[in-house]
Amino acid sequence: MRFSQYLLPTLRETPAEAEVVSHKLMLRAGLIRKAAAGIYTFLPLGYRVVKKIIRIVEEEMDRAGGQEVLMPIVQPAQIWQESGRWDVYGEEMFRLKDRHGRDFCLGPTHEEMITTVVKNEVRSYRDLPLLIYQIQNKYRDEIRPRFGVMRAREFIMKDLYSFDIDEEGMNRSYQLMYDAYTRVFRRCGLKFRAVEADTGAIGGDVSHEFVVLAETGEAVILYCEKCGYAANVEKAEAGLPVPEDAAPGEPEKVSTPGYTTIPEVAAFLSVPPEKLIKTLFYTVNDELVAVLLRGDDEVNEVKLGNHFNAPYYLAGPEDVKERLGLTVGYVGPVGLPSGVKLRILADRRVERMVNAVCGANEEGYHLLNVNPGRDFTVDTYLDLRLARAGDACRHCGETLVETRGIEVGHIFKLGTKYSSALQATFLDERGEEKPMVMGCYGIGVTRIVAAAIEQNFDEDGIKWPLPLAPFQVLVLPVTQEQMAEAEKIYEELTAAGVETLLDDREERAGVKFKDADLIGIPLRITVGPKGLATGEVEVKNRMTGEQWRWPLAEVVAKVREYLEEEGSSFK
Ligand code: ATP
Ligand code: MG
């Protein structure tokens, strides 16, 4: 491709709308242009990257036994009503009506659609398992579309759905997909991790996220370097601390006038925050629930939400005053008012506390030497805290480490949630009717473009991993005088099947070098007066910064050698 004829509008200035580096660089390098919030056009250079990803994804899905289909984007409300998600999906769903007033949506995902297709076509256990996938636009009216194509309202997803006769089959399909995803992201040339994840609204019980590691990522991951345990912070569960070896003391009420927060009380009483019990109140289905945590812990809202399985909110000070007659800041689990229906949940760490400190349920006072079991009872102990770096791994005890990343893939075991709701059944060997056992598996194709940049950039621009690069080689003549030689190299490389971009613009060398760094093509071949005098070109590796001088006659052979060697590390 010749730069002079290519729709590749690079920008010097950073567009004000972009907050994160990948978004800035995608606009500056002429990969995308915005149509509306969270809705983008991929320009030619950007779309080449998208297609590279699509090709890798298709190859690996096919290799795992996937069959590619294309389902409609516009979906009838009826199938969503049958699954029960029409009403719960909420504002994230783009909804529309046809001329007859019938309800439709733009597919945010396709469980309902594929389950309907499969149920109509499959009767017997002999037809299963099936792995069906598509690569297509998805529509989600995100509350905060941001970071360019990273959190868009229209984006490309690969979604695959597995249908099996039983749980064992589903587990096999899940493992196939886990392995296929591992190959996809390795072949994309990305550093990533598979982490245990919360299953969220989609249902099901086991899930993993594939996260591209990048400091700027939204996803927080905790992992263990020793045993390999890794989980999204929403899901992560740490090991329990060893209980303190101390004899329980007698409860004692102490005056703590004006000290209401954990740090204030801890400092005033000269105890570490982990000796305090934090008491929070939540309202769930109009019922009040007390949640106890160690003073140094924070509540994990996802775990709490999963336990409640209903909308809930933190009760404010007025609420607590009105319903319990207590003043926030001095509350605790000992001697809570009787006569008010109150469920008490506590994080597992609370159970192990010895001689703890908590509010005395009397304004201006706290209690010392409080011991769970003896001084108060709890309805349910469960894991409710946010795990954090420094915690012990629950499997091997090693210290957990934190890292950040971008979720690019998510796989779920769904079980029979959708097949039961939509009556997707089959006849087993004995002629018995059974619901199919499903899994679903998504890859954010367009999000990968942004994630690859977040992981690979410097102050000058993008550094494409070779497998995703829009072109493999950029040929850059320093002045018009080297154009003929540059053209020749370009023609030869192109003829040899190398994806090459020739910067044939009548621009100053400085402009061309700046654009070369910005668009980040892996190999830059500079054809300059000095080199040509000795029959050489200068070659720069954008990713590593390495520079070489290659004899003109060997350019094609050297490029091929490089591509083969470098390419083989992504197999
Ligand atoms: P998130 O937690 O980021 O909102 P999700 O759990 O809603 O993601 P899934 O429904 O599992 O995402 O979708 C599968 C994949 O699609 C995600 O792993 C992600 O890579 C991609 N994806 C999801 N939402 C968006 C979006 N708004 N823009 C771009 N890609 C997205
Ligand atoms: Mg989402």
Structural class: alpha+beta
User: Which small-molecule species are bound to the chains here?
Assistant: adenosine-5'-triphosphate, magnesium ion
Radius of gyration: 29 Å
Describe the largest sheet: 9 strands, mixed
- Total helical elements: 16
Q: How much of the residues is beta strand, in percent? A: 25-35%
Described by the principal axes of the CA atoms, the overall outline is globular
Helix content class: 25-40%
The total beta strand count reads 31
Q: State mean pLDDT (0 to 100 scale).
A: 95
How far apart lie the N and C ends? 27 Å
Spans where pLDDT lies below 50 across 5 or more residues? none
Question: Your description of this structure?
Answer:
The chain is of the alpha+beta class. Helices cover 28% and strands 29% of the residues. It contains 16 helices and 31 strands. The strands form 8 sheets. Strands 3, 7, 8, 9, 10, 11, 12, 21 and 24 form a 9-stranded mixed β-sheet that branches. A hairpin with a 2-residue loop joins β25 (457-458) and β26 (461-462). α1 crosses α12, α2 runs antiparallel to α6 (167-187) and α2 (44-63) crosses α12 (445-455). The mean pLDDT is 95. The structure holds adenosine-5'-triphosphate (ATP) and magnesium ion. Residues 109, 140, 142, 151-152, 155, 157, 407-410, 442, 444, 446-447 line the site of adenosine-5'-triphosphate (ATP).
